[in-house]
């Protein structure tokens, strides 16, 4: 069947099920076949539950992300391979091959997030190259989890935060115990004897309460032991 350059595609069948067509010319072995099927099966799952984007590329990225987080990530990443070809005495050509619309590094990072969530160890199920990518993903994830809450935010978001903190301080002087919710922005203020700002730990979503107007402080998460150095 002509797949117009695609590795595979899924389509509804006449029996109210689905049919997956595979371009076997683009699949070299059973490991690659499993990676392709993992993606297409997730397409079917998302279709059944009614999750999709209008944009084709966004929909494919959603499919790969969902497949990885649901547990197919090891299968997909095991199909990643590096090759080198000697052109002449001084030139070696390097290439790599993987399946899906995410990069190997992105697959590795999502598998790392799943590992953190479910306390798993995927290394026994990954080949050497996939294992290296997963370890890099874990390093990236750990560094992201150590970022302060508003690190990388736009300057306007930081100005808005300082305005909300100022308003909370005024209300605190007037009313004593109170709380102001700005969860849609990632934080809230409370006064229980001292004005505090509350935000979620990036790693485990534990609520962290720190005093406002303390300058640069170190924040320790009691649940996952993540450390943040930030300005309150």
Commentary on this structure:
The chain has 232 residues and is α+β, with helices and mostly antiparallel strands. It has 2 domains: 8-145, no CATH class; 155-231, no CATH class. 42% of the residues lie in helices and 23% in strands. It is built from 5 helices and 10 strands. A 4-stranded antiparallel beta sheet has the order 5-6-7-8. A two-stranded antiparallel sheet has the order 1-2. Strands 3-4 form a two-stranded antiparallel ribbon. The longest helix has 23 residues, at 56-78. The radius of gyration is 24 Å and the shape is elongated. The N and C termini lie far apart (61 Å). The mean pLDDT is 83.
Any chance you could write out the topology, listing elements then pairs?
Layout: E1 8-12, E2 18-22, H1 30-49, H2 56-78, E3 81-86, E4 92-97, H3 104-118, H4 128-145, H5 155-175, E5 178-182, E6 187-191, E7 195-200, E8 207-211, E9 216-220, E10 227-231
Antiparallel strand pairs: 1-2, 3-4, 5-6, 6-7, 7-8, 9-10
Helix pairs in contact: 1-2, 2-3, 3-4
- List unreliable stretches of 5+ residues: none
Radius of gyration in whole Å, from Cα? 24 Å
- Order of helices and strands, N to C? EEHHEEHHHEEEEEE
Beta-strand content: 15-25%
- Strand line-up across the major sheet: 5-6-7-8
Proportion of helical residues: 40-55%
Average pLDDT over all residues: 83
> What does the overall shape look like?
elongated
- Report how far apart the termini are: 61 Å
Structural class: alpha+beta
Biggest sheet descriptor: 4 strands, antiparallel
Count of separate DSSP helical elements: 5
């Amino acid at each position: 069947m002509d797949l117009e350059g695609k590795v595979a595609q899924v389509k509804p069948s006449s029996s109210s099920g689905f049919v997956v067509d595979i371009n076997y010319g683009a699949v070299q072995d059973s490991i690659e076949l499993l990676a392709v099927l993992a993606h297409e099966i997730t397409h079917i799952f998302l279709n059944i539950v009614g999750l999709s984007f209008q944009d084709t590329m966004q929909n494919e990225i959603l499919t790969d992300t969902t497949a990885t987080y649901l547990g197919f990530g090891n299968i997909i990443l095991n199909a990643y391979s590096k090759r080198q070809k000697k052109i002449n005495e001084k030139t070696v050509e390097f290439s790599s091959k993987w399946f899906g619309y995410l990069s190997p590094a992105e697959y590795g990072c999502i598998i790392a997030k799943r590992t953190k969530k479910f306390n798993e160890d995927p290394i026994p199920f990954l080949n050497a190259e996939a294992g290296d990518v997963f370890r890099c993903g874990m390093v990236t994830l750990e560094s992201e989890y150590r970022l302060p809450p508003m690190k990388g935010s736009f300057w306007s978001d930081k100005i808005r935060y300082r305005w909300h903190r100022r308003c909370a301080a005024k209300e605190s002087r007037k009313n004593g115990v109170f709380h102001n919710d700005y969860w849609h922005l990632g934080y809230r203020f409370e006064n229980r004897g001292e004005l505090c700002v509350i935000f979620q730990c990036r790693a485990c979503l534990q609520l962290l309460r720190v005093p406002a107007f303390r300058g640069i402080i170190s924040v320790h998460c009691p649940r996952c032991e993540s450390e943040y150095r930030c300005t309150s």
